[in-house]
Write a structure and sequence with these properties.
The complex is a heterodimer of chains A (229) and B (337). With 229 residues, chain A is mainly alpha-helical. Helices cover 78% and strands 0% of the residues of chain A. The longest helix of chain A is centred in the N-terminal third of the chain and has 34 residues, at 20-53. Chain A is globular, with a radius of gyration of 20 Å. The chains are: A mainly alpha (229), B alpha+beta (337).
C-alpha cells in the first residue's frame, strides 16, 4: 500500500514540477486526439447528415455497419492502419508509421463511426416540421442542410466530445501505430502501460490523473450540452 | 390572377386525395377553405406553396405555368403551417431567417422590428427572447412575423388559429389584413374557425373528399338516405328528427344546404310547404365579411346548420346565441354532389 501512496505523492511532484517526460506524453496525446477529432468531424458530420437526412436503398444496412463499427477494437484498427502505412504498405511512402499524424489517422478511423452515428441520430431526431418551415422561408437545399446541422448543434457537439473521449483514452492504436517512442509518440495511455510494467507507479499515476481530468472535463461538457439540447 | 389551376389530381396510392377541375385565385384576394379533416385542404395548400407536385394538372402562377417544386414563384409564396416551428434561436433570428437566406442585408433590424410590431409583439420585449420563452400564441405570431417580413405575394395559412387564444387570433387577423391592404398580399387560408375565417376572407370554398363542392359555407349533409312511402328520402339525425330530401343520386349521397335557403323562426311555423322544420339552439353568430349579412349557426341535435340572414332580420327576431330557434328549409333545397 505504501508504494501506491508514495506513487501518488511523487505523481503530484511530477505534475507540479513540470516533468518533461510526463508533459511530453500529455502534449503528444492532446496533439493526436485533437487532430483526429477535427478530421473525424470534417468527415463524419457530412456523412452523418446524409445518413440521417436522406432515405435511400440500403440505408438500414449502412446504418447497421456504422453502428457495428462503433465497437471496433482499437487493436484491429491499429493492425489495419499499421499494414497500410508500414513501409511495405500502400501508403508506406508517406512515412506515417510511428508519427503523431499516423496515430491521428488511425484514431480518426476509430472515431469517425461515432461522429457519423451520433450525427445521423441527431438529424433523424429533428422535428419533422423543420424542413417545411425552412422551405416556407425560402431556404435552398444547401441552406436547409446547414440550418438542420445548426439546429442539431448540441447533439453534434455531443458527438464531438464523445469522439474526443474515445480518442484520448485508447491505447491499442497509439501502441501499435505510434510505437510508444519516448519524447516522440509516447501518449498518456502507452506511457501508463509501460511505466506500470516497469514498476514506475509515479508517472503512471500522474498521467492517470491527467487522463481522468480530461475525461472529467469531457463528461462535464457533455452533461452541460445534453442539458441544453 | 395569381393562381389558375385546372385538372389537378393528387393521388396517394390508388386513392385520389385531390381532384380539382378548376380553381382561380385573384391577385390580392383572400380565399378561405373549409372542410372536414382529411378532405385534402392541407395537401392543396402544400401544392399551392410548391412543396408538392400534383400527379396531373396544370398550375399557373401569375400567368406562368409552374413546373416542379423548384419554380421561380417559390420565393413569392410562403406558408404558415398548422403547428408552427421556431428555430432554436432568438425571436429576432427567427424572423430574420428568411431575409438572411435571401441575402438581404439592408435594414434587417428595422424590417424585423416592423414585422414583430405588426403581429402585436413589441420588439423591445420580444426580439431578444429565446424560442422556449414564448407561449403558444406568441410562438405562432413570431412564425407569422417571419413570413410577413418577406412581403410575400401569397401568404398561405393552414389552421392559423387552431392552437392560439382569442387575443392571438385577433392579432393574426389584423396582421394579415394589413399585409393584404398595404402590400396586396393574396391570402389562402384553411380553417375550422368559421367565424374568424368569415372576418378575413372574401370567399370561402368548401372541399369534400378532395373536391371543391361549392363557394358556400353551407352544411354538408351525408347519407344514408332511406326512401319513404310519401316519395321523399329521409335521413334520421341522432336526436330522432329527420331531414327530408328529394331524389338523391344514391342512398349514401352527400348534399350541401345553402345558408340562404334556410329560414329561421322564433315560433313553430304552421301551414307552410317546407318539409324540414327542426328546432335547435343558436350557437354562433358572425358578420360575413363580404356581404355584411349575419351567419347564424344553429345546433340541431346531431348536426349544425348555418343560416344567412340580414342584419335587420337578426335584429327583428332578437337572435342571440343560446336561444331556441326553428329552422325551415325545403326538401328540394339540398344540392347533391
Amino acid at each position: 500500500m505504501d508504494y501506491i501512496v508514495a506513487g501518488c505523492i511523487e505523481a503530484f511532484g511530477l505534475l507540479a514540477g513540470g516533468d518533461g517526460e510526463t508533459y511530453s506524453a500529455i502534449a503528444t496525446t492532446l496533439k493526436a486526439s485533437t487532430l483526429s477529432m477535427v478530421a473525424s468531424l470534417i468527415i463524419g458530420i457530412p456523412l452523418g447528415f446524409l445518413l440521417g437526412y436522406y432515405s435511400f436503398p440500403g440505408k438500414r444496412q449502412v446504418r447497421t455497419v456504422v453502428d457495428t463499427l462503433l465497437a471496433m477494437p482499437t487493436v484491429v484498427v491499429g493492425l489495419l492502419v499499421y499494414a497500410f502505412i508500414s513501409r511495405r504498405g500502400p501508403l508506406g511512402e508517406f512515412g506515417l508509421l510511428f508519427t503523431i499524424p499516423g496515430i491521428a489517422l488511425a484514431q480518426t478511423i476509430l472515431v469517425v463511426p461515432i461522429v457519423v452515428s451520433l450525427t445521423a441520430t441527431a438529424i433523424e431526431g429533428l422535428d419533422r416540421r423543420l424542413r417545411m418551415t425552412l422551405m416556407a422561408l425560402g431556404a435552398e437545399r444547401i441552406q436547409i442542410a446547414m440550418t438542420s446541422i445548426v439546429e442539431a448543434r448540441f447533439a453534434v457537439l455531443i458527438a464531438a466530445v464523445t469522439a474526443y473521449g474515445r480518442a484520448v483514452s485508447e491505447v491499442g492504436i497509439s501502441m501499435m501505430v505510434g510505437g510508444n517512442i519516448k519524447w516522440h509518440t509516447r501518449t498518456i495511455t502507452t506511457a501508463i502501460a509501460l511505466e506500470t510494467g516497469k514498476g514506475e507507479f509515479a508517472m503512471g499515476i500522474a498521467l492517470g490523473i491527467v487522463l481522468l481530468l480530461l475525461a472529467f472535463l469531457a463528461n462535464s461538457l457533455l452533461t452541460i450540452l445534453k442539458r441544453q439540447s | 390572377m395569381i393562381y389558375h389551376i385546372s385538372g389537378l389530381k393528387f393521388r396517394y396510392g390508388d386513392t385520389f386525395l385531390l381532384d380539382i377541375e378548376e380553381l382561380a385565385i385573384q391577385r390580392g384576394s383572400s380565399l378561405g377553405l373549409v372542410g372536414p379533416n382529411g378532405c385534402g385542404k392541407s395537401t392543396l395548400l402544400r401544392i399551392l406553396a410548391f412543396f408538392m407536385e400534383p400527379d396531373e394538372g396544370v398550375i399557373c402562377f401569375d400567368g406562368e405555368r409552374v413546373d416542379g417544386t423548384g419554380s421561380a414563384g417559390k420565393r413569392d409564396v410562403t406558408i404558415l403551417l398548422q403547428e408552427s416551428y421556431l428555430l432554436k434561436r432568438t425571436v429576432f433570428e427567427n424572423v430574420a431567417y428568411g431575409l438572411k437566406v435571401r441575402g438581404e442585408k439592408r435594414n434587417v433590424t428595422g424590417l424585423v422590428h416592423g414585422a414583430l410590431t405588426m403581429v402585436g409583439l413589441p420588439p423591445g420585449r420580444f426580439a431578444g427572447r429565446s424560442w422556449f420563452e414564448l407561449s403558444g400564441g406568441e410562438a405562432q405570431r413570431v412564425a407569422l412575423a417571419a413570413r410577413l417580413v418577406l412581403n410575400p405575394r401569397v401568404l398561405i395559412l393552414d389552421e392559423p388559429t387552431a392552437s392560439v387564444d382569442q387575443e392571438s387570433a385577433g392579432l393574426i387577423k389584423d396582421a394579415i389584413a394589413r399585409a393584404r391592404r398595404d402590400h396586396g398580399t393574396s391570402l389562402v387560408i384553411a380553417s375550422h374557425d368559421l367565424p374568424w375565417l368569415h372576418e378575413v376572407t372574401d370567399d370561402i370554398n368548401r372541399i369534400h373528399e378532395g373536391r371543391m363542392v361549392g363557394h358556400e359555407t353551407g352544411t354538408v349533409i351525408s347519407g344514408p338516405w332511406i326512401r319513404h312511402s310519401d316519395g321523399l328520402w329521409k335521413k334520421t339525425l341522432t336526436g330522432g328528427e329527420t331531414i327530408s330530401a328529394v331524389t338523391p343520386p344514391g342512398p349514401d349521397a352527400s348534399a350541401i344546404l345553402n345558408p340562404s335557403d334556410i329560414m329561421l323562426s322564433t315560433d313553430r311555423p304552421e301551414g307552410i310547404s317546407a318539409q324540414n322544420i327542426l328546432q335547435g339552439t343558436i350557437t354562433q353568430m358572425t358578420v360575413e365579411n363580404d356581404s355584411g349579412k349575419v351567419l347564424v349557426t344553429v345546433d340541431v341535435v346531431g348536426i349544425s346548420l348555418v343560416a344567412r340572414v340580414t342584419g335587420k332580420a337578426a335584429r327583428d327576431l332578437h337572435l342571440l346565441p343560446g336561444i331556441s330557434i326553428w329552422v325551415l328549409f325545403k326538401a328540394s333545397s339540398l344540392t347533391w354532389y
